[in-house]
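User: Please predict the structure of the protein below. I'd like the answer in structure-token form so I can feed it into my own downstream comparison script.

Assistant: Understood. Taking the following sequence of 208 residues as input:
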Amino acid sequence: MLKKWIFVLISGVLLATPVIAQQAFTEGVDYKRIDPVVKTTDPDKVVVTEIFWYGCPHCFRFEPFVEKWAKSLPEGVVFEQLPSALNQSWVVHARTFYALKFMGAQEQLHGKLFNTIHIKRQRINNLDSIAKFVAEQGFDEKQFRKHYKSFPVDSQVRKNKKIEQRYGHQGVPAVVVNGKYLTSGSMAGNFDRMLKIIDFLVADELRG
């Protein structure tokens, strides 16, 4: 009987070993360390920052994954989105994100803008086309244009550019954990694995 229980115990350890191995991610391969660390928006929490561009098809495909993931955050973790201004042509959408945010419409139109660009295949890549889109969704076009050209939006986009330079990422989608670690779709290989890497880094930060 004792031999049987020893066999079961050893078998359980052996079966668990591959699972443990799958959760062991490598710095420089699956994620990179950001040096120096970038200050986050909430020093009392573990901040997870998604960097994206509305025009990016990979970001569009990643959105359902990260949206579902963000609904069940561990205590002490916050999620935020940073529209990339890494490329000058992306600035239009970065300004759009913050204009919508300042007018209280970002959450309602975030997914719709993604879908309109990637499913309906509409070219929404300048102020006039985006303002038209906003109006079609029932929001005030004049208010949107005012926010789009405002100093607060301009300041936030310029801030993004500086932060992204410090992150050192080369493309999107990318995710930064607590201003210390960065992973991306290309580093992870697929989106499911990318979320596992994020969970791994978040758990490490929560342990302190």
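That's the full token string. The CA atoms of residues 105 and 139 lie 8 Å apart.
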